[in-house]
Protein backbone atom coordinates (compact mmCIF):
# COMPACT_ATOMS: atom_id res chain seq x y z
CA UNK A 1 0.00 0.00 0.00
CA UNK A 2 2.75 2.42 0.96
CA UNK A 3 4.59 1.79 -2.32
CA UNK A 4 1.41 2.47 -4.30
CA UNK A 5 0.88 5.68 -2.36
CA UNK A 6 4.37 6.84 -3.26
CA UNK A 7 3.83 6.00 -6.93
CA UNK A 8 0.53 7.86 -7.00
CA UNK A 9 2.07 10.86 -5.23
CA UNK A 10 4.90 10.88 -7.77
CA UNK A 11 2.41 10.80 -10.64
CA UNK A 12 0.51 13.75 -9.15
CA UNK A 13 3.73 15.64 -8.45
CA UNK A 14 4.95 15.02 -12.01
CA UNK A 15 1.67 16.28 -13.44
CA UNK A 16 1.94 19.43 -11.30
CA UNK A 17 5.52 19.87 -12.51
CA UNK A 18 4.34 19.45 -16.09
CA UNK A 19 1.64 22.08 -15.45
CA UNK A 20 4.38 24.42 -14.21
CA UNK A 21 6.48 23.78 -17.32
CA UNK A 22 3.43 24.50 -19.48
CA UNK A 23 2.85 27.74 -17.58
CA UNK A 24 6.42 28.82 -18.28
CA UNK A 25 5.86 27.86 -21.92
CA UNK A 26 2.72 29.99 -22.07
CA UNK A 27 4.59 32.96 -20.62
CA UNK A 28 7.34 32.55 -23.20
CA UNK A 29 4.79 32.28 -26.01
CA UNK A 30 3.09 35.49 -24.86
CA UNK A 31 6.47 37.26 -24.69
CA UNK A 32 7.27 35.98 -28.17
CA UNK A 33 3.91 37.24 -29.45
CA UNK A 34 4.48 40.68 -27.91
CA UNK A 35 7.91 40.84 -29.53
CA UNK A 36 6.60 39.74 -32.93
CA UNK A 37 3.56 42.05 -32.82
CA UNK A 38 5.11 45.27 -31.58
CA UNK A 39 8.76 45.11 -32.59
CA UNK A 40 8.87 42.94 -35.70
CA UNK A 41 5.33 43.87 -36.84
CA UNK A 42 4.48 40.27 -37.76
CA UNK A 43 1.96 38.90 -35.24
CA UNK A 44 1.57 35.15 -35.09
CA UNK A 45 -1.89 33.66 -35.48
CA UNK A 46 -1.28 30.52 -33.41
CA UNK A 47 -0.08 31.98 -30.10
CA UNK A 48 -3.43 32.82 -28.49
CA UNK A 49 -4.90 29.44 -29.36
CA UNK A 50 -1.88 27.52 -28.07
CA UNK A 51 -2.02 29.51 -24.80
CA UNK A 52 -5.73 28.64 -24.49
CA UNK A 53 -4.90 24.95 -24.82
CA UNK A 54 -2.06 25.26 -22.33
CA UNK A 55 -4.31 26.92 -19.73
CA UNK A 56 -6.88 24.17 -20.28
CA UNK A 57 -4.20 21.50 -19.70
CA UNK A 58 -2.81 23.25 -16.62
CA UNK A 59 -6.21 23.09 -14.92
CA UNK A 60 -6.55 19.32 -15.30
CA UNK A 61 -2.89 18.51 -14.67
CA UNK A 62 -2.70 20.61 -11.52
CA UNK A 63 -6.07 19.89 -9.88
CA UNK A 64 -5.12 16.54 -8.26
CA UNK A 65 -1.95 18.03 -6.77
CA UNK A 66 -3.90 21.02 -5.48
CA UNK A 67 -6.42 18.69 -3.82
CA UNK A 68 -3.60 16.67 -2.26
CA UNK A 69 -2.09 19.85 -0.80
CA UNK A 70 -5.46 21.05 0.52
CA UNK A 71 -5.52 24.10 -1.74
CA UNK A 72 -9.08 23.76 -3.01
CA UNK A 73 -11.73 26.21 -1.91
CA UNK A 74 -13.21 25.53 1.51
CA UNK A 75 -15.27 27.47 4.03
CA UNK A 76 -12.96 27.39 7.03
CA UNK A 77 -14.85 30.02 9.00
CA UNK A 78 -17.83 27.67 9.36
CA UNK A 79 -15.89 24.42 9.76
CA UNK A 80 -13.66 25.94 12.48
CA UNK A 81 -16.73 26.50 14.67
CA UNK A 82 -17.68 22.80 14.63
CA UNK A 83 -16.53 20.06 16.96
CA UNK A 84 -13.84 17.55 15.93
CA UNK A 85 -16.26 14.70 15.19
CA UNK A 86 -18.57 16.97 13.19
CA UNK A 87 -15.56 18.11 11.14
CA UNK A 88 -14.66 14.49 10.43
CA UNK A 89 -18.23 13.69 9.34
CA UNK A 90 -18.30 16.79 7.16
CA UNK A 91 -14.97 15.73 5.67
CA UNK A 92 -16.33 12.25 4.99
CA UNK A 93 -19.37 13.73 3.27
CA UNK A 94 -17.40 16.20 1.15
CA UNK A 95 -14.84 13.58 0.10
CA UNK A 96 -17.62 11.09 -0.74
CA UNK A 97 -19.28 13.75 -2.91
CA UNK A 98 -15.91 14.41 -4.53
CA UNK A 99 -15.52 10.72 -5.33
CA UNK A 100 -19.03 10.52 -6.77
CA UNK A 101 -18.78 13.66 -8.89
CA UNK A 102 -15.26 12.80 -10.09
CA UNK A 103 -16.42 9.31 -11.07
CA UNK A 104 -19.37 10.69 -13.04
CA UNK A 105 -17.31 13.30 -14.88
CA UNK A 106 -14.48 10.84 -15.51
CA UNK A 107 -16.90 8.25 -16.91
CA UNK A 108 -18.67 10.74 -19.15
CA UNK A 109 -15.43 12.24 -20.42
CA UNK A 110 -14.00 8.80 -21.18
CA UNK A 111 -17.17 7.79 -23.06
CA UNK A 112 -17.28 11.09 -24.94
CA UNK A 113 -13.58 10.81 -25.69
CA UNK A 114 -14.08 7.37 -27.18
CA UNK A 115 -17.00 8.62 -29.29
CA UNK A 116 -14.91 11.56 -30.44
CA UNK A 117 -12.02 9.26 -31.35
CA UNK A 118 -14.22 6.82 -33.26
CA UNK A 119 -16.07 9.54 -35.16
CA UNK A 120 -12.88 11.56 -35.82
CA UNK A 121 -14.15 14.87 -34.40
CA UNK A 122 -11.58 17.63 -34.80
CA UNK A 123 -11.44 21.04 -33.13
CA UNK A 124 -10.81 23.42 -36.01
CA UNK A 125 -9.56 26.89 -35.23
CA UNK A 126 -6.16 28.09 -36.38
CA UNK A 127 -4.88 24.61 -35.62
CA UNK A 128 -6.76 21.37 -36.21
CA UNK A 129 -6.52 19.06 -33.20
CA UNK A 130 -8.52 15.88 -32.52
CA UNK A 131 -11.08 16.61 -29.82
CA UNK A 132 -10.42 13.38 -27.92
CA UNK A 133 -7.04 14.75 -26.77
CA UNK A 134 -8.85 17.36 -24.70
CA UNK A 135 -11.47 14.93 -23.45
CA UNK A 136 -8.82 12.41 -22.40
CA UNK A 137 -7.08 15.14 -20.44
CA UNK A 138 -10.35 15.79 -18.60
CA UNK A 139 -10.75 12.05 -17.96
CA UNK A 140 -7.18 11.75 -16.66
CA UNK A 141 -7.53 14.75 -14.36
CA UNK A 142 -10.82 13.53 -12.91
CA UNK A 143 -9.57 9.96 -12.57
CA UNK A 144 -6.68 11.18 -10.44
CA UNK A 145 -9.03 13.48 -8.51
CA UNK A 146 -11.23 10.44 -7.87
CA UNK A 147 -8.31 8.51 -6.41
CA UNK A 148 -7.17 11.45 -4.28
CA UNK A 149 -10.71 12.07 -2.98
CA UNK A 150 -10.94 8.36 -2.11
CA UNK A 151 -7.59 8.49 -0.29
CA UNK A 152 -8.75 11.48 1.72
CA UNK A 153 -12.11 9.83 2.42
CA UNK A 154 -10.37 6.79 3.89
CA UNK A 155 -8.06 9.11 5.83
CA UNK A 156 -11.09 10.76 7.44
CA UNK A 157 -12.63 7.33 8.04
CA UNK A 158 -9.46 6.18 9.80
CA UNK A 159 -9.46 9.39 11.85
CA UNK A 160 -13.06 8.71 12.89
CA UNK A 161 -12.20 5.15 13.96
CA UNK A 162 -9.35 6.47 16.08
CA UNK A 163 -11.66 8.99 17.81
CA UNK A 164 -14.06 6.19 18.85
Write structural notes for this entry.
The chain is mostly helical and 164 residues long. The mean pLDDT is 92. The chain has five helices and two strands, in the order ααααββα. It is elongated. Strands 1-2 form a two-stranded antiparallel sheet.
Strand and helix map with partners:
Blueprint: H1 2-40, H2 47-68, H3 76-79, H4 84-119, E1 122-124, E2 128-130, H5 131-163
Helix pairs in contact: 1-2, 2-5, 4-5
Give Rg in angstroms: 20 Å
Task: Give the proportion of residues in helices.
Answer: over 70%
Question: Termini, distance in Å?
Answer: 24 Å
Strand content: under 5%
Counted by DSSP, the helix tally is 5
> Could you spell the SSE succession in H and E letters?
HHHHEEH
Q: Would you count the extended β strands for me? A: 2
Describe the oligomeric state of these chains in a short phrase.
Answer: single chain
Structural class: mainly alpha
Q: What is the overall shape?
A: elongated
Uncertain regions spanning at least 5 consecutive residues: none
| Order of the strands making up the biggest sheet | 1-2
Mean residue pLDDT: 92
Describe the largest sheet: 2 strands, antiparallel
Amino acid sequence: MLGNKRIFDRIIDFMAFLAGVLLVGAVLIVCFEIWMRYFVRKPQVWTVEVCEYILFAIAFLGAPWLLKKGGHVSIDIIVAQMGPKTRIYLGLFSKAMGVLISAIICGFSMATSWDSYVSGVVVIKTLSIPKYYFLMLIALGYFLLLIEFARQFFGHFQELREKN
